[in-house]
């Protein structure tokens, strides 16, 4: 089911999972045609696309990548170009991000810098799939 945020059950399961090693999150992103900011937000009058708003979210996270308490590291970003095998949703972007541990990711989500950037994500993202993976080997 399309979503922008994890539900309570998903977030609880993620936060309490016993895996304490690195995680790699695979983001499959679908953007809104036009960004949707609150009417009183300065960006509301800019006429941004959803992708442009989401890019501002990404720019806001750059500082967090340099913080060892968070340690996020983008591994790959690319535009969706269709399926060779299978089929389903046509995704606008694929983003793969490494975190040293789930605690690092949870720390990021609570960080005021993340919260400040997060409004751009909400304005631009129509929905996504977020897949947690554990590196093998």
UniProtKB/TrEMBL annotation:
Xref: Gene3D superfamilies: 3.30.70.100
Superkingdom of the organism of origin: Bacteria
InterPro entries: Dimeric_a/b-barrel
UniProt protein name: DUF1330 domain-containing protein
Organism this protein belongs to: Henriciella barbarensis
């Amino acid at each position: 089911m399309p979503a922008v945020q994890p539900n309570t059950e998903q977030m609880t399961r993620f936060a309490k999972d016993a895996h304490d090693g690195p995680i790699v999150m695979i983001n499959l992103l679908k953007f809104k045609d036009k960004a949707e900011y609150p009417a009183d937000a300065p960006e509301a009058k800019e006429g941004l696309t959803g992708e442009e708003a989401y890019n501002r979210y990404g720019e806001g996270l750059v500082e967090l990548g340099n913080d060892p308490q968070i340690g996020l590291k983008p591994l790959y970003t690319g535009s969706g170009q269709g399926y060779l095998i299978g089929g389903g949703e046509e995704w606008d972007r694929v983003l793969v991000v490494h975190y040293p541990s789930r605690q690092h990711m949870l720390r990021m989500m609570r960080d005021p810098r993340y919260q400040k950037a997060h409004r751009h994500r909400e304005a631009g993202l129509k929905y996504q799939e977020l897949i947690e993976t554990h590196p093998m080997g």
